[in-house]
């Protein structure tokens, strides 16, 4: 068993190494932008991919649980909004609280697993790649310095920013850009005048 695990680990390590070499070759043109631009592009593309994955990837179980949760939730909201106490009590009796709780926790867990797979896993994988591909020794070899950004300080030594921290800032900025683009697109659609073919 121990020899099997050792051989499996060696194969996994070799696979990771080959994937990294493939990514290095694919992202080589980004070196022309320097470490700042290259890491920003990697972060921005990763954020876009996670948004696409999150929107497109929905399991059958997730859709089913969402429908069930919406049904029970809307029924409870209708009971709470009802002005007629007798009708409200009838509606509340129809609500299976245990079923609502079960559907809620199943829906929450399924949504958490979906987010983990489509959003957080790609980000952490790219973070691991950036940490390895832009470590100080690689930065020195490819760009002639061991840091990504140097932040000058009025008094004292400048702050040297590494690849991981810069990637984290780029991810936050990319999410902000996506939200801004979405809100601008939404406003543009609402302000669009109706075409001549529209009734």
SSE layout and pairings?
Blueprint (H helix, E strand, L loop, with lengths): L1 H26 L6 H23 L3 H22 L3 H10 L2 H37 L2 H8 L5 E3 L7 E3 L1 H29 L8
Antiparallel strand pairs: 1-2
Give a written overview of the molecule.
- There is one protein chain.
- This protein has 199 residues and is mainly alpha-helical.
- It has a domain at 34-136 and 163-177.
- Helices cover 78% and strands 3% of the residues.
- The protein is built from 7 helices and 2 strands, in the order H-H-H-H-H-H-E-E-H.
- It has helices spanning 2-27, 34-56, 60-81, 85-94, 97-133, 136-143, 163-191, and strands spanning 149-151, 159-161.
- It has a two-stranded antiparallel sheet.
- Strand 1 (149-151) and strand 2 (159-161) form a beta hairpin.
- The longest helix is centred in the middle third of the chain and has 37 residues, at 97-133.
- It is extended.
- The chain starts with a helix and ends in an 8-residue tail after the last helix.
- The model has no long low-confidence stretch (mean pLDDT 81).
Which short descriptors sum up this protein?
two-stranded antiparallel sheet; 3% strand; 78% helix; mainly alpha; 199 residues; 2 strands; 7 helices
What's the short story on this structure?
The chain has helices at 2-27, 34-56, 60-81, 85-94, 97-133, 136-143, 163-191, and strands at residues 149-151, 159-161.
């Amino acid at each position: 068993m121990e020899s099997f695990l050792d051989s499996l680990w060696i194969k996994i390590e070799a696979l990771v190494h080959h994937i990294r070499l493939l990514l290095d070759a694919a992202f080589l043109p980004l070196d022309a932008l320097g470490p700042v631009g290259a890491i920003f592009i990697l972060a921005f593309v990763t954020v876009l991919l996670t948004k696409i994955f999150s929107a497109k990837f929905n399991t059958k179980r997730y859709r089913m649980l969402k429908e069930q949760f919406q049904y029970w939730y809307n029924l409870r909201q209708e009971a709470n909004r009802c002005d007629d106490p007798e009708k409200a009590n009838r509606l509340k009796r129809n609500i299976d609280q245990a079923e609502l709780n079960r559907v809620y926790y199943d829906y929450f867990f399924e949504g958490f697993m979906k987010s983990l797979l489509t959003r957080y896993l790609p980000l952490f994988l790219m973070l691991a790649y950036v940490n390895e591909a832009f470590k100080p020794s690689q930065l020195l070899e490819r760009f002639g310095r061991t840091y990504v950004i140097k932040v000058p300080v009025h008094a004292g030594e400048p702050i040297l920013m590494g690849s991981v921290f810069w990637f984290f800032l780029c991810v936050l900025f990319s999410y902000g850009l996506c939200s801004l683009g979405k809100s601008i697109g939404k406003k543009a659609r609402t302000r669009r005048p109706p075409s001549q073919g529209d009734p």
